[in-house]
Amino acid sequence: HALDLLSGDHSMDAEQKLDSRMGSPEQLAQVARSEYTKSTFAARRPALAFIGVPLVTMFGTVVGLVVVFGILSSFLDKLAGGSLSLQTKNNFVEFGSILVRFVPFLLSTWLVVRFGRRSDRYTWSKIGIGMIVVAAFMFTSNVLPKVGETRGQWILKMGVGENLNWGHLLQAFVPLAFGVGMIKGMSSATTRFTKI
């Protein structure tokens, strides 16, 4: 190397040989990204990642929210010394019912799109979102408030029945719009990144 420096020959061949052996930096980045996406859980087990995990997430979140609202309802009543009005308790449970109608499906949609982005499998993301939208459309959460001495009821159902209304369409539309927005946002970010 010292002779090369003294003679002014900086051996440009070495740089060219390195590029020909390893590839350009763009090629190396592309190979690294490809290997990373192949190694993700969603790429190795797409059916489980895009169908199984969202189903468990949806139903687990529903159960979790119902339990949390049940515990919070009794805790807040005890914290207030048992002086919470019946209307306040009913409103609290109604609020929980609204959350249960949207949060599980939004969380599952977020997971499916994240899996799709990490594994570069947007088609599977779209399949997962479709399944979530159908589940959201079929889900019903009704609260029959406590009146006098009668116990209140929180009714959770899955299925298409006589109670379909505009609320079911809204429940289906919200995760659909959220998922489409996330996919479009990620694909435009990917496009911007690859143009750099």
What is this structure, in a nutshell?
This protein is mainly alpha-helical and 196 residues long.
Describe this structure in words.
Helices cover 77% and strands 6% of the residues. By secondary structure, the chain is mainly alpha-helical. It has one domain. It has a two-stranded antiparallel sheet with strand order 1-2. Helix 7 (122-138) packs antiparallel against helix 8 (166-195). The model is unreliable at 191-196 (pLDDT under 50).
Main features:
single chain, 196 residues, mainly alpha, two-stranded antiparallel sheet, 2 strands, elongated, disordered C terminus
Span of the ends, CA to CA = 35 Å
Helical region count? 8
Shape: elongated
Low-confidence runs of at least 5 consecutive residues: 191-196
Strand line-up in the sheet with most strands: 1-2
- Overall mean pLDDT stands at 80
Order of helices and strands: HHHHHHHEEH
Strand content range: 5-15%
Oligomer status: single chain
Helix content range: over 70%
Structural class, judged by helices and strands? mainly alpha
Main sheet attributes: strand count, strand direction, barrel closure = 2 strands, antiparallel
Provide the number of structural domains. 1
Rg over C-alpha atoms, rounded to the nearest angstrom = 27 Å
Number of strands: 2
Secondary structure blueprint with pairings:
Elements lengths: L1 H6 L4 H11 L2 H15 L1 H4 L1 H34 L6 H34 L2 H17 E6 L8 E6 L7 H30 L1
Antiparallel strand pairs: 1-2
